[in-house]
Design a protein that fits this description.
5 helices; transcription; mainly alpha; single chain; DNA-binding; Cro/C1-type_HTH; transcription regulation; 90 residues; globular
């Protein structure tokens, strides 16, 4: 098998297994980055309603959009980490 074919096979597996944060965290990250659903949709080549569905959990992205969306969210999470939970006063 050629190196190019191997790379394509690996990329395909990565696209299928790209992990995404929970839907609410997806929305938080987008908002933290001051991005609109329309901007994300345009960058990923989908309709805005798809991004809305991904952020509510009504749908999950599929390849090749899933890999690109996971990359975007990973970049945003590095810039805007989730706030730490406040300890419960007791």
């Amino acid at each position: 098998m050629k190196q190019q074919d191997l790379s394509a096979s690996v990329d395909s597996l990565l696209a299928r297994s790209a992990s995404l944060p929970a839907p609410a965290e997806r929305a938080r990250l987008r908002r933290a980055g001051s991005l609109t659903q329309a901007e994300v949709a345009e960058a990923l080549g989908v309709h805005r309603v798809q991004v809305a569905r991904w952020e509510t959990g009504r749908a999950e992205p599929r390849a090749p959009h899933k890999q690109a969306y996971a990359r975007l969210l990973k970049g945003l999470s590095a810039r805007y980490p989730a706030p730490e939970a406040d300890p419960v006063a007791g």
